[in-house]
């Protein structure tokens, strides 16, 4: 993994996988939960460099709008869309949570997904969460949580809000009905490799180039080596997962 990138997502690994195959499988497991049909309008929130949005447009024949608060990533995504001749079906817009409604209004999209950036009718999300192994009263767990949040730049939140149960509660508070929820990191099998194994291998590889700062470019996107060490520790200790899957749909009021 010597290619530098500003975007990287953790995915399930199997023996013999290369990263591109693992990432594609991870994305394609998410897509069917949106009940996609040709011609639908889909929002990719936190689209990064646009690779997932472009993959979805080609895979399902839908139109995708990618939104991200990083202008450099948006410009890169636009360039890639033009190169792949998908600009007519995939557009990229600079924005964040606060201005989504002003940009699109209510019920503009048929589906929404976001990968590791949880913050409509059908929603599918891969999110970073604390698992049931996280003990908020354990000083070591508290320290690990604070280090992970600081080193990765995901922001500080109470442990209860970033917990698996907290994510479900947040969706329900937003008037969304949970259709499916699953922590993919707990899947087992003889060929399954833990998600953090790629980090462990990279630590001893002198060819790996790590990002010099949060959000920079490196073999693992904007992940610095110090942040990767913390994430690996969190993976080994089991209080953290980067691939909690939540699928929800908006509860529509009954017509009278």
Automatic annotation (TrEMBL):
GO terms for cellular component: endoplasmic reticulum. InterPro entries: Erg6_SMT_methyltransf, Methyltransf_25, SAM-dependent_MTases_sf. It holds the Pfam family Methyltransf_25. GO terms for biological process: sterol biosynthetic process. Residues 42-122 form the Methyltransferase domain. Keywords: Transferase. Belongs to the class I-like SAM-binding methyltransferase superfamily. Erg6/SMT family. This is Methyltransferase domain-containing protein. It comes from Phellinidium pouzarii.
